[in-house]
Specification:
With about 240 residues, the protein is α/β, with parallel strands linked by helices. The protein has one domain: TIM Barrel (Alpha-Beta Barrel), CATH 3.20.20. Helices cover about 45% and strands about 15% of the residues. The strands form 2 sheets. Strands 2, 3, 4, 5, 6, 7 and 8 form a 7-stranded parallel beta sheet that branches.
Length: about 240
């Protein structure tokens, strides 16, 4: 058995275990597993792991750092030429990185300010005009569930106005909301707040159907509160990291 074979077996087993957790959580919540997608978060993991996950049926991946992601996009394309891969930026995005990100991102899930909306939208229009991307960029509005200004996310009180601004942007499409449960807080309470925000935004913008919430440690609570996408890193990929990390 080669190293790749061994790693593939590890990933297949981990993927099955995570999917079993999702199915069990959906059953407990009276939901269908088909309502919840799984986004492997491959930050700090090597491109070879992404390639192996592509081989076993995954096609969308979450990345946190734009620079790491851009390099990995190229590496995966070389490892699996011709295979369609959907890359989601799930980490904080600085405006000076927007020009690069719009050339490879299928979705940006961390939009949390008016300035970022305006910059990202303008860079998408520019990229489309130059033939660097095929069309508008789907985004999620990142919500701060505790209002801490030191962390990413728009406060709940400002979510509706920022959602409206995204919808007015010619380069962006509002697909829904995303959040991370604050450390030390009850996940059910936090995700319940997020579900309320999502409902209010969806009332004005019916296309905003994505509720991205839940990670390795709290995906069950997220699914109980309506999550349609769980972002899983450690439970799927373990602690294997890039040599430079």
């Amino acid at each position: 058995m080669t190293a790749d074979d061994g790693r593939r077996d590890e990933l297949v087993a981990a993927l099955a275990a995570v999917r079993e957790r999702v199915a069990a959580a959906c059953a407990a919540a009276g939901r269908s597993p088909s309502e919840v997608s799984l986004l492997p978060v491959t930050k700090t993991r090597p491109a070879s792991d992404v390639a192996l996950l592509l081989d076993v049926g995954c096609d969308s991946f979450g990345e946190n750092r734009p620079q790491e992601a851009a390099a990995k996009v190229e590496q995966v394309a070389a490892l699996r030429p011709g295979v369609t891969v959907h890359w989601h930026l799930v980490g904080r995005l600085q405006r000076n990185k927007a020009r690069s990100v719009v050339t490879w991102a299928s979705r940006v899930e961390s939009v949390d300010s008016e300035r970022l909306v305006d910059t990202l939208g303008a860079e998408v229009v520019r990229a489309v005009d130059l033939g660097l991307r095929p069309g508008t960029l789907p985004v999620l509005l990142q919500i701060s569930l505790d209002g801490d200004p030191r962390r990413a996310g728009v406060p709940v009180a400002g979510a509706q106005a920022l959602a409206d601004r995204i919808v007015r942007s010619p380069g962006l499409e509002l697909h829904g909301v995303m959040a991370v449960a604050p450390l030390g807080e009850d996940a059910d309470r936090a995700f319940g707040v997020l579900a309320g925000v999502a409902d209010r935004i969806r009332a004005d913008h019916p296309g905003a159907v994505v509720l991205s919430a839940g990670m390795s440690g709290d995906l069950e609570a997220a699914i109980r509160n309506g999550s349609t996408c769980v972002r899983v890193g450690t439970a799927l990929l373990g602690d294997r990291r890039l040599a430079s990390q």
